[in-house]
Amino acid sequence: MSVDLEHYNFTQKHLLGLAEYSSDDIKYVLEQAKYFREILDRPVPKVPTLRDKTIVNLFYENSTRTRLSFELAQKRMGADVVNFSASNSSAKKGESLKDTIQNISSMKIDMVVVRHESPGVPYFLTQCVDAAILNAGDGAHEHPTQALLDMFTMQQIHPDLKGKKIAIIGDISHSRVVRSNITGLTKLGAEVVICGPKTLMPVFVTDLGVTVSHNLNEALSWCDIAMALRIQLERQGKGTELFPSLREYHERFGIKQKHLEKYPDFKIMHPGPINRGVEMESEVADSDRAIILNQVTNGVAVRMAVLYLLSGGNRV
Questions:
Q1: Residue 113 — φ and ψ, nearest 5°?
Q2: Which residues are catalytic?
Q3: At what angle do helices 292-310 and 65-76 cross, to 10 degrees?
Q4: What integer pLDDT is reported at residue 314 of this predicted model?
Q5: Are 17 and 180 in contact, with CB atoms under 8 Å apart?
């Protein structure tokens, strides 16, 4: 499962999505993350590997975990950090994204972490500036660092993901997390089942290279790890009713305490934020079968690893 840290030639300049990363690239990032995860357990959880770097967090969408995780990772590594919020910027006055990023770039920055509601924005930024671009979520396209931290968390239970059975349950159609996870997990040899209502499956679902299920019990009886996804009402459009009610969704696809008792082996993940009583019962989220808070902690370590590698670091 591991790659040779000593001799591996990591050539990626950006992290736009996991589609552009080879299986060895992904393994290399995850190996690097082990070192940074150890740093987080030290009395002083800091390492000055980015002290000469300036990083801009360019967020056009609301975020809590991802933004704080990136910012904490950057500060743990000694970077100079500039936080940009579209709601408090000249974007409100009509300034284009291209003008915004070029103005910021003229201030001599090294890296940009961007979250945007439109797919493809991270790639667009690579055409505008020389800085390294990290995708923190673009529309319903990809969320690569979330998938990397998810895989890192899975590896803490199953060091080799080849052949492991992962069920991803919920709003498949609107999720950027599921796209990055499917890409990364299949490259590492895992088996993936996506499960949810037919109305929450994308039209190209057969092209994803995974098994599709509409039966929660079937998915949970099969899997080693179950990842529930948030129902993204904000992406479904006003007046669009893709299922009768949240109550009925929970009844058919919510993970419940009875599932933990019936299927005693699988672990539970969620990229957050959790809608308790929708994707899962509160008792499930708080149970010892859930490794959701591990995901949050690991997110800082994984983002430290990505920042380090894209800043020009070869190994640690």
A1: -100, 120
A2: 65-66, 93, 115, 143
A3: 50
A4: 56
A5: yes
Helix (H, G, I), strand (E, B) or coil at 135: strand
Alpha-carbon distance of 109 to 116, in angstroms, equals: 19
| Contact of 193 with 166, CB cutoff 8 Å | yes
Token pair for 42: 């030290």
| Rounded Cα–Cα distance for residues 61 and 122 (Å) | 13
Q: Which residues pair with 55 in a beta bridge?
A: 81, 111
Compute the distance between CA of residue 162 and CA of residue 186 in angstroms, rounded to an integer.
9
Q: Give me Rg for the CA atoms of the chain.
A: 19
**Tokens at 163, concatenated:** 């052949």
155-196 confidence digits (pLDDT tens): 999 999 999 999 999 999 989 999 999 999 999 999 999 999
- The pair phi, psi for residue 48, each rounded to 5°, is -85, 45
Buried b (16+ CB within 10 A) or exposed e, 42-72: eeeeebebbeebbbbbbbbbeeeebbebbbb
Reported residue count of the chain is 316
* Inter-residue contact 219 to 169 (CB < 8 Å): yes
Task: For each of the domains in the chain, give its residue range(s) and CATH number, in order of start.
Answer: 18-141+297-310 (3.40.50.1370), 144-292 (3.40.50.1370)
Q: Can you give the pLDDT at residue 62? A: 82
What is the C-alpha separation between 241 and 290, in angstroms, rounded? 30
Q: What is the pLDDT of residue 203?
A: 84
Q: 271-277, long-range: CB within 8 Å, 24+ apart, which pairs?
A: 271/143, 271/146, 271/150, 271/177, 271/227, 271/229, 271/230, 271/295, 272/65, 272/230, 272/296, 273/64, 273/65, 273/230, 274/228, 274/230, 275/230, 275/231, 275/246, 277/250
Segments of the chain with pLDDT less than 70: 1-2, 87-94, 233-242, 314-316
Three-class DSSP category at 32: helix
